Structure formats: structure tokens, C-alpha cells
Amino acid sequence: MTATSRRWNGNIHYHPRILRSVPDDARHALDVGCGEGTLTRELRRTVPNVTGIDLHTPSIDQARAHAGDVDYIVGDFLTHPFDPASFDVIASVATLHHMDATAGLTRMRDLLRPGGVLAVIGLARSTLPNDLPRELAAVTASTFHRVTKGHWQHPSPIVWPPPVTYPEMRALAAEILPGSQYRRHLLWRYSITWRKPRN
Fold first, then answer.
1. Phi and psi of 195, rounded to 5°?
2. How far apart are CA 119 and CA 180, in angstroms?
3. Looking at the whole model, is its pTM more than 0.85?
4. Where does the Methyltransferase type domain start and stop, copy by copy (predicted)?
5. Domain with 28 in it
6. Cβ-count burial of 163 within 10 angstroms (0-12 exposed, 13-18 middle, 19+ buried)?
């Protein structure tokens, strides 16, 4: 087991959900906001061509220091000249709250090939007091994981609090990605999974 595989934090905790969404026949994958490449390298185990993009140069420098046949780009995902409909799978973990969520989801939708899969793990803002029981449960679960697994602090910039609430994020996903599956998770995360229609 490598040092990387032993890392744990709230983002890594949900990586398996992303990886389970990858289509068996995927040939090209994009990791949006890849940071130092933990998920990107995992994607490369099953997808032949993987690109990671991030605005944070020090994180990309760390990603490139790891062995692995991955194309890392320092750049703005919203404006980088990717070809439309050029990826079979697009993954994004804890990145949408760093940009305008509407623009981000729309761009991901447009870069996905028909039949391709978009898999997002994101952070949103709780609304109190309605979300207090969820907050208390999350604190308890997070504390347990940190005690039993430790905690790895990623090198990428942090945006807190997220600008969009959970209900707002659910509504955006339904509007921009009709038929997508939205789920709220325990450790201050939500997921969106969507397969782009073929027609």
C-alpha cells in the first residue's frame, strides 16, 4: 500500500463513488480541479487517456512529480480550449464551489460526449437551523474517521463557506442536467451523476 492510498479526507472518502461511475468503455477522462492528482491517477488505472486541469500551479507541480501517464494542465477549466464533446467521463471533486456553478456544470455538460458520464462530488452551504441535525451527524462521523484514519490536508486553495446551498445545487443540477441523480452525503458533500443522452 502506497502513502497516497493511505491518505484520507472528506474528498478522498467519496472517490470510490466517482470511480464506480466510470463507463467500462471510457477512453478519455477529464478531472476538473485535479489538485495534486490523487483522483486523476486513480482514473488512469482504468481509462487510457486522462487529463487533469487546475488553476493552482503548485498543486499541478506536485501532480507531475508522481509517476503516471497523465496530461496535467495549469489553466482555467471554463476557458481552456478543449474540443467540445471530447470526453467519455468528466470527474470533479470539491471544485464547483470555486467557480460559478451554473457555468461549471454547463461547461462539463458541453465537453461530455453523448453517452458519457459526469460524476461530481461537491460542497454546498448548510442552512441553519434546518440542517443542524445533519451538521451534528457530520461532525461525529468526521471525528471518527479522523481518529481512525488520520487526516491528509490537500495543498490546494480552500473556499469556505461555499456560495451555493444544497437545495440551490439540487435545483441547478435538475435544470442543467435533466435526469441527473443528486444525493446529499454525510460528510458535508453532495454528488451529481449524469449520463449524457446519445440523441
1. -105, 125
2. 10
3. yes
4. 30-119
5. 4-125+154-193
6. middle
